Amino acid sequence: MTRVIFEKQGPIAILTLNRPEARNAIDPEMRKELITAWTQFRDDEDLWVAIITGTGEKAFCAGADLKRMGEFYSLNPHKRREKLEKEPGLGGITRNLPIWKPIIAAINGAALGGGLELALSCDIRIASENAILGLPEVKWGIMPGAGGTQRLPRLIPLAKAMEMVFTGKTITAKEALELGLVNEVVPLSKLMETTLEMAKKICENGPLAVRAAKEAMIRGLDLNLEEALRLEQFLAEPIRQSEDAKEGIQAFKEKRKPNFKGR
């Protein structure tokens, strides 16, 4: 069975986690398929935006398949550290697989542990009304290890992030919206429609400009303001010389929609 369904709708890639019998939990096979799918999206110049969601109506992703964790822990500590430092993380994009194209998570139910960490690795999160989100790893004597302790405090107030991590509690989609953890909450029946609308809006813009802007924002978070402003100009200058920039200016003059090519 294909664990990650990869579809294309014009310039939009749709990745669907496909283990509904396991609440779309990530096992080693799914992880490999995710890495392949993310790499395909990253390298295909005709794809501008990605959406990731889960099969079914109950779970986006329940995290790592704990029944298969023994395979990882059977490695000696040196091998485990080497694997973690060099290879893409759980869910692919959680570590060591940077993608500057926009990625949207359509959270169609429970996003727990590594599932929430996968959603945190996305740029925009749209949740269904039935979604619940949490990092329950401490309940099982482990800690979030796919970016949860680093990305969550960058997205919501530190005290709230600590409460979620220390207690392992889950929050509702409404609570996530109030915290700014998700961008929008919609009925489950409208989730993919709403997410596709967002993706299409992004695709109306110059893809090179959008990617450079994403890189500037993400990388700039780790810099002081002066260095970040320098990074912004470093990334902006090549965009100003692109064919898309010339097309955008010409379209503005001619009062028409630009026809961007990603060049």
Give an overview in words:
- The chain has 263 residues and is α/β, with parallel strands linked by helices.
- The chain folds into two domains: 4-203, Alpha-Beta Complex (2-enoyl-CoA Hydratase, Chain A, domain 1); 207-254, Lyase 2-enoyl-coa Hydratase, Chain  A, domain 2 (Orthogonal Bundle).
- 45% of the residues lie in helices and 16% in strands.
- It has eleven helices and ten strands.
- A six-stranded mixed β-sheet has the order 1-2-3-5-7-10, sandwiched between helices.
- Strand 1 (4-9) and strand 2 form a beta hairpin.
- Helix 5 (148-155) runs antiparallel to helix 6.
- 37% of the residues are buried.
Summarize the structure.
Helices cover 45% and strands 16% of the residues. With 263 residues, it is of the alpha/beta class.
